[in-house]
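Quick start: what a row looks like.
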Amino acid sequence: MRERDTKHPGLACGAAAVSLAIMVIAGGCASSEPVRLSKIDIPTADGAIRGYAATVNLRDPRVRLVGTSALAADSVKPAGAEARLVPTDEWARSVDATLAINANYFGRVAGGAGAWKAGEYVDVLGLSIADGVVVSPVREYAGRPDPALAVFADGRAVAGYLRASDVVGARVGVASIGPSDTDPARGTMLVDDAVNLGGTARVEPSERHPRTAVGVSRDGSMLIIVAIDGRSPGHSIGATLNETGDILIGLGAFDAINLDGGGSTSFVYVPTDGPSVQNRPSDGAFRPVANHLGVRITPRAQRSPSS
């Protein structure tokens, strides 16, 4: 196990936030807050990289991670279909999520064509778990599983090349895309033991695109979420995967994976006691996507002794 890069101790109030041009806009530095929301605004020679980040305390009893549920067992669906496309903001409302992002890459099933449309049946690429149920199984290529994230009921998160045996008992899981016949040389973790591997992750690592990515702290107690806007002149140019990895490391990620990006990148934050925050999707509106990762916050007064 490599030692963590001490030059990137994680986002804190003050110097770290200034050096990364990431400003905390909700949650502050109070350890009692389950979610800390930050605004990303990083100048480059080509233009600004803008978006949002959130750090989620998985050990906080108010936090519950949620994912997109499996299709009903008795539903009539095409062969290979594992999900139906739903925009992230709509999904967030349906599950009462305080925070929601898009997750896995997805592919066509028989009969699919043209623009991605809400309600279309699709194949989820790689691991997807919701409420402890495997919606889509682990995908492997040449004997190695895709990079994936799993969160367990005890508030522990892991990110790595996770096999089916590694996610037994996981409550929620999502995955990046590993190597395939079309790109056998790439498909690594985005960050592995605090080392930035963005140059060998997928997809199109050296191009600037909207990006969605998630990471975990070294002890697995913190989930770090990043959504970077792009393809928007005058607002945000997007980020390479190396740039995305640097941002995650700066926020405290020890391991991280890249999720579906481009027009799919979505970030929706709807707190109970403050203004809502949304990213600027490059399509002009939230694209319907196959699955999602959400954070539901339960106020202390609403929790029962057994919850």
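That is the whole record. Confidence is low (pLDDT under 50) at residues 1-19, 301-307. Residues 212 and 227 are 5 Å apart (CA to CA).
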